[in-house]
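Allow me, if you will, to draw on your knowledge of protein folds for a short while. The matter concerns a single protein, recorded as an amino acid sequence and a row of backbone structure tokens. Kindly check, if you would, that the fold set down in the tokens agrees with what the sequence suggests. You will find the record immediately after this paragraph.
***
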Amino acid sequence: MSLLKKLELANHFSSSEKSIASYILNNTEEVLNLSTIELAKKTYTSPATIVRLCQKLDFKGYNDFKIALSANLQYILSHQKNINANFPFQKNTNLSHISNAIAKLYKESIDETLQLINEDILRKSVILLDNAKVIDIYGVSGPLRIASDFQYKMFRIGKDVRIAPMVNEQLFQAAQSKADHCAILVSYSGETEEVIKAAQILKQKQIPMIAITSIGDNQLTKYCQYILNIDSREQIYNKISTLGSTLSIHLVFDILYTAIFSRHYDEALSYKITTDQLIDHRTNK
């Protein structure tokens, strides 16, 4: 997870630390030129509190924090697209502009996702999924809805994909995983508590895991053997919706599905057509 996302999440921050984090997020470039004393005055805190915040974020001190902050900012600027992924349109924008903005955002998210995919990791992930008897998926909210589409497609070519809709059920699912299972864990931040709990259980069970998550260091990546990164331009909270990340996650799932299909093309196509014909109740009148 990027440094800015960690500041936005503010996990285990005190009220003073949250004030500092909020100021940094709103004045990132300015903070790069501020000393601890100057930042403390602007946030009505103390230099000691700023140093503690930096250490809580795994930096030795404020200078190391600023170096990382500068690198994070440079990355964002170098990956800045034409459309703001958090606010692709503004208040009272006309319908034509909204339509074009969302279409451009989708195109940018697709391009960004393709750039982030490591072909070797993707290949190993596909082999892992293909060899598994059962594929279990873990996540919450939106990612699970996207995963259900992957599950449906995989069912139609004879692959067993399981999704437990409730969090507690997912933990039972993890605890009951067997040696012939593998897991896909989806979390944009990589810090989703429910997903991390499942990952911890799966690690104890020695179940191989694939993470679909944003770029950067996060808890989820520490448990998973293979990491598939998605478009990471969205902020955690300050956005109108998960437009780009949703499309990015969907794209990764579709790539996994079609790659597995390709490995068994004739058999998969025959299985799908036969199944479709059995369940299609349309009549030709």
